[in-house]
Amino acid sequence: MIMNALPGSTAGRLRFILLAMIVALGVLSSLSAWAHKASDSYLVLDVQGKAVSGQWDIALRDIDFALTDGLDADGDGEITWGELRARHADIAAWALGRLALQRGGACPLRVTEHLVDSHTDGAYAVLRFAGDCAAASGELVVGYTLLFELDALHRGLTRLTLDGVTSTAVFGPDRAQQRFVAGETSRLRQFGQYLVEGIWHIWIGFDHILFLLALLLPAVLVREGGAWRGVARFGDALREVLMVVTAFTLAHSITLSLAALGYIALPSRLVESAIAASVVLAAINNLKPLIEHRRWIVAFVFGLIHGFGFASVLSELGLPKEALVLSLLGFNLGVEVGQLAIVAAFLPVAYYLRRGMFYRHWIFIGGSWATLTVAAVWFIERAFDLKLISN
Asked: Phi/psi at 390 (nearest 5 deg)?
């Protein structure tokens, strides 16, 4: 039914699909322009026998969104300590109602202290809590449902120490309940979790996707005599794509590793602004070519910056080094798998359409202008701490 509603010819259908992909990406990018970083909370659990203690960092913006009447009592756009303190009981009830521990029975939890801390993406409420389980040994079951009914992209990044053995976990709508046994932590399971999170991160990281697409758009074209024409062979386009993707992968893997392992730390605002600037410059290079034949150099240079952006999730979690290395490998591989999926979806269609005016004018030129516009808004918002698009 849907395909019958599309333009009659195969080429027409492919043009329609590719244009729809570009428009959809532009809409999603615009809607996400103010918040590259997806919603995360940071949960630290320490279970020794029956005794439970922990700390839960939850973004104030998420709490404000979830609670009835929000946190900003006077509506001035700022959340003060007084406004936050007035809702401590509500925050505790809301949060602990979405975290359930069981070990031989339920482990009732109570908040023991309320604090505030800053993460790379803003202010967080810090809930320190304690409790007691029914049994001092055996399997621990953790159920996490914070914000899932409101935000399917939310993730709970968790570090658990169970009877002296540390492991990590990522909670999402499809993994809201997980089971742990001390000494039986599967490194393969942990690796697989972060592999999936790496794929997910690149797919919801619209600035990373736009940068990659800005470099891929001209891959099926060649510039001669000041004009663009389609490449003669698919192998030529594939070789260009492989060089770009390999350079981008190598570069962001370097800085992702250095940042996640704690060797280099850059301010989040600087990194996010530089990422937006990289998208702007990649789009400008399509419209006014300065680097025509070695776009892999552009991919490598700016890939170094994007690596710091990829590292934010892992560095925020503060994993023990041995767990961080394993998680890093899985996360990085996941990013590469996510990238290859994007390339595999884009390149064949782009190659098929490369010779037509539709691709050169609407997809290549139009797509580059759209990318430039969205990325310029990102840059202004991030560099000058403004909000040009209201959420």
From this structure: -80, 145
234/224 Cα distance (integer angstroms): 18
Is the pLDDT at 224 greater than 60? The verdict is: yes
- Residue 361, pLDDT above cutoff 50: yes
Terminal C-alpha separation, the chain: 35
- Dmax over CA atoms of the chain, in Å, equals 78
What whole-number distance in Å separates Cα of residue 215 and Cα of residue 60? 36
243: enclosing H helix or E strand: helix 234-260
pTM comes to 0.71
Q: What is the DSSP string of 155-218?
A: EEEEEEEETTEEEEEEE-GGG-EEEE-TT---HHHHHHHHHHHHHHHHHH-HHHHHHHHHHHGG
Give the model's pLDDT for residue 11.
59
237: tokens are 């386009």
Cα(337)–Cα(195) distance, integer angstroms: 9
Are 167 and 319 spatial neighbours (Cβ–Cβ below 8 Å)?
A: no
Average pLDDT over residues 97-122: 92
pLDDT in tens, 265-309: 888 889 989 999 999 999 999 999 888 778 899 999 999 999 998
Packed helices 10-31 and 321-353: angle between N→C axes, nearest 10 degrees: 140
